[in-house]
């Protein structure tokens, strides 16, 4: 196995495992507060890591940088962490990863005027059917609906909405991506997003000293540390290397591996339900993602 192939496997494993600490952490502290802690600390570390490049942001890029940070990290992870608290973590991972290529197509069309051909339309249609299938099984009282959180369908919808914010932010980030070092851009977007998450949490959630103390205790502390070190720092570093060496298509294949890891971990560690209806919906969404990613 080549070095990059090994790194790809590590990245898929890490990003698949991040859904477990989100789920576990949000059982003990408010979910947006958990996200705020993760991204605030990760952003500071990234900017320290950027070193002398930390201020290499063109003056005219700041408005777009701040706006995209609020989309990519504040809006996205407010919905994603809240949604994952209420939905099975494996299904949340499927909705997130499988809709990224589809939402990116739509965002590129609306924002940049990129043409959507017949193949891409088929991907959007198939993904919509798959997503609808997951929601329909819950509305009709399927396997997860019988055993899960009553807000599960809303949780999955929140994850889907957060993913849309992420994709819009990613497309809007493209004009400034080449004007500064990648780590500088990512660090500022992460820190600003973390500040935004802090504001949202303090506004909408009941956060007390007990929640702050919980961040330094079991099981929240290891959950936050894994999200920061594994999800934000390690995953980001490996992905940037693979983008450079493999290109966006091959690097983006994690979208088919990481959800499988998340589902397996959710079933084994949290006894999350995953039946035939979930499997069919997931296959439809992965098929759509495959079509969307095809060059």
Low-confidence stretches at least 5 residues in length (pLDDT < 50)?
A: 142-146
Number of helices: 14
- How far apart the termini lie comes to 25 Å
The ordered string of helix (H) and strand (E) elements is HHHHHHHHHHHHHH
The description of the largest β-sheet is: none
Mean pLDDT: 90
| Global geometry | globular
Portion in helices = over 70%
| Total count of strands | 0
Amount of beta strand: under 5%
Radius of gyration computed on alpha carbons: 18 Å
Structural class by helix and strand composition:
mainly alpha
Any descriptors?
81% helix; mainly alpha; 0% strand; 295 residues; single chain
What does it look like?
The chain is mainly alpha-helical and 295 residues long. Helix content is 81%, strand content 0%. It contains 14 helices and no strands. The chain has helices at residues 3-17, 19-26, 31-50, 62-86, 89-112, 118-139, 143-147, 152-177, 182-204, 209-214, 220-246, 248-251, 254-270, 276-293. The two termini are 25 Å apart. The model is unreliable at 142-146 (pLDDT under 50).
What topology emerges from the helices and strands here?
Layout (H helix, E strand, L loop, with lengths): L2 H15 L1 H8 L4 H20 L11 H25 L2 H24 L5 H22 L3 H5 L4 H26 L4 H23 L4 H6 L5 H27 L1 H4 L2 H17 L5 H18 L2
Helix pairs in contact: 1-11, 1-13, 2-4, 2-5, 2-11, 3-4, 3-9, 3-11, 4-8, 4-9, 5-6, 5-8, 5-13, 5-14, 6-14
């Amino acid at each position: 196995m080549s070095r990059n192939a090994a790194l790809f496997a590590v990245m898929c494993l890490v990003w698949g495992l991040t859904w477990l600490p989100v789920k576990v952490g949000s059982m003990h502290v408010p979910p947006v507060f958990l996200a705020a802690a993760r991204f605030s600390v990760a952003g500071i570390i990234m900017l320290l890591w950027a070193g002398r490049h930390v201020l290499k942001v063109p003056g005219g890029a700041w408005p777009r940088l701040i706006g995209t940070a609020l989309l990519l990290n504040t809006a996205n992870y407010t919905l994603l962490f809240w949604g994952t608290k209420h939905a099975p973590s494996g299904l949340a991972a499927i909705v997130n990863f499988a809709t990224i290529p589809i939402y990116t197509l739509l965002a590129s069309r609306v924002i940049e005027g990129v043409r959507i051909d017949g193949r891409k339309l088929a991907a959007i249609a198939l993904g919509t059917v798959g997503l609808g299938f997951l929601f329909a099984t819950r509305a009709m009282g399927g396997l997860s609906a019988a055993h899960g959180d009553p807000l599960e369908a809303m949780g999955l919808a929140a994850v889907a909405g957060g993913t849309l914010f992420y994709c819009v932010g990613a497309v809007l980030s493209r004009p400034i991506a080449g004007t500064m070092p990648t780590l500088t851009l990512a660090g500022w977007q992460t820190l600003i997003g973390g500040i935004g998450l802090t504001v949202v949490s303090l506004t909408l959630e009941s956060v007390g000293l007990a929640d702050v103390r919980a961040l330094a205790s079991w099981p929240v502390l290891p959950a936050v540390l894994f999200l920061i070190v594994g999800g934000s720092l390690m995953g980001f570093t490996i992905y940037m290397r693979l983008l450079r060496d493999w290109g966006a298509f091959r690097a983006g294949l994690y979208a088919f591996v990481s959800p499988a890891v998340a589902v397996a971990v959710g079933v084994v560690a949290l006894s999350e339900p995953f039946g035939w209806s979930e499997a069919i919906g997931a296959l439809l969404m992965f098929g759509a993602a495959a079509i969307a990613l095809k060059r």
